[in-house]
TrEMBL record:
Species classification: Bacteria, Bacillati, Actinomycetota, Actinomycetes, Micrococcales
Pfam family, one: HTH_3
PROSITE patterns: HTH_CROC1
Protein origin, superkingdom: Bacteria
HTH cro/C1-type domain location: 13-65
InterPro entries from the UniProt entry: Cro/C1-type_HTH (IPR001387), Lambda_DNA-bd_dom_sf (IPR010982)
Protein species of origin: Arthrobacter sedimenti
Protein name, UniProt field: Helix-turn-helix domain-containing protein
Length: 83
């Protein structure tokens, strides 16, 4: 499963856990229901700003989900690592 689809699945789980519909989540982050559906299916990429908005709207925090998201990310050398 690719990163966007896996992140979309996580976003759907956060939304459902918060008791939100795609429409109410979309309203909270300034998007329409169709765009939320595309995010959840992995057909639309999520930038950091939108991710933070989704987390806030669903009652999640970045520290709580960071390790789960990191597990999804393709292996990349750390930008913070001393070279």
């Amino acid at each position: 499963m690719d990163f966007d689809r896996s992140l979309g699945n996580m976003a759907a789980a956060w939304r459902i856990s918060a008791g939100l519909t795609q429409q109410t989540l979309g309203a909270a982050v300034g998007l329409d229901q169709a765009t939320i559906s595309r995010i959840e299916s992995g057909d639309r990429k999520v930038d950091v700003d939108l991710l933070l908005q989704i987390l806030a709207a669903t009652g999640q925090s970045l520290p709580d989900v960071a390790s789960d998201i990191q597990e999804l990310a393709p292996a990349r050398p750390s930008l913070w690592k001393e070279q």
